[in-house]
């Protein structure tokens, strides 16, 4: 973690954040917009697979997913900014933050889950479902995992600033 | 006014949200507020993008089924928002960005209802594969309202930055 922290400190983003008042709030806004894009597209496909919004063909809804990927990219960039440019305590403060660590683990699980969806026959099975039809059980499990992990990402993301509450709840 | 706000801050709910060290207090209410936001703005953006011509393969008429979902997100945020407001009523009422945010949220809800009455109520037009007039205008309006709600909502946390921005 310290090696990574030193590396991030070398980006000098802390100086950039400190010298420009607008950078942090602007990144936060983009982070929330990116979050909405991801939930509104990937989450929407997940919900349809689970049976919400029948009449909407899943394969067509998937055409919105590039917007969710764009949202994820926005959040990867702004999130990097938050960690590398943290004006209070520097990168190490965030890297050692348990809420952030759990959040990143959940992002990783969501990513693996997405790969499982596209690299197995599950994705193709889902695309042939009728507009008002039911998806297979395997697809529903993947969709449920996706929703739980992304909303978990939001939960632990909001907790980063209140990490003490988490540690207190866990008795640490 | 101040008396009422101070009374609000002293209620059991407000005190719990503000002062309890429980994970279920301030942090969970704040998280729910972010989740509700993602649902309302996310689904609204998806619907609006389709109306603007993206992902043209998606049939428009059944998108109306997503409206209750937007209102579910809105309800989560109305309830969590009241809790967050009560915890810091005096501070929030004096925050210009908070007032702006409430205005944009209300305009956002109006924009959702405008989509319902001006686009989705024209079932016959939608079934024929075309869109009612001014559909793109209403979709753009909705995206803009909710984006401004997010921007002003985030700025509630930076009153000093806003003051210097406005030259105050």
Word description of this protein:
The complex is a heterodimer of chains A (172) and B (168). By secondary structure, chain A is mainly alpha-helical. Chain A is built from 10 helices and no strands. The model of chain A has no long low-confidence stretch (mean pLDDT 96). With 168 residues, chain B is mainly alpha-helical. Chain B has one domain (2-165). Chain B is built from 9 helices and no strands. Chain B has helices at 2-10, 12-19, 26-51, 67-87, 89-93, 96-120, 123-127, 135-155, 159-165. The longest helix of chain B is centred in the first third of the chain and has 26 residues, at 26-51. The radius of gyration of chain B is 19 Å and the shape is elongated. The model of chain B has no long low-confidence stretch (mean pLDDT 96). At the A-B interface, α3, α4, α9 and α10 of A face α3, α8 and α9 of B.
Summed up, what is this model?
In chain A, 76% of the residues lie in helices and 0% in strands.
Question: What attributes characterize this protein structure?
Answer:
heterodimer, A: 172 residues, mainly alpha, 76% helix, B: 168 residues
List the topology elements.
The complex is a heterodimer of chains A (172) and B (168).
Chain A: H1 2-9, H2 13-19, H3 23-49, H4 58-61, H5 65-84, H6 90-95, H7 98-119, H8 122-127, H9 137-159, H10 163-169
Chain B: H1 2-10, H2 12-19, H3 26-51, H4 67-87, H5 89-93, H6 96-120, H7 123-127, H8 135-155, H9 159-165
Helix pairs in contact in B: 2-4, 3-4, 3-8, 6-8
Q: What percent of residues of chain A adopt helix (DSSP H or I)?
A: over 70%
Shape of chain B: elongated
Query: What share of residues are in beta strands of chain B?
Result: under 5%
* Contiguous runs where pLDDT drops below 50 for at least 5 residues of chain B: none
Count all strands of chain A and give the number.
Answer: 0
**Stretches of chain A where pLDDT falls below 50 for ≥5 residues?**
none
| Oligomerization status of the protein chains | heterodimer
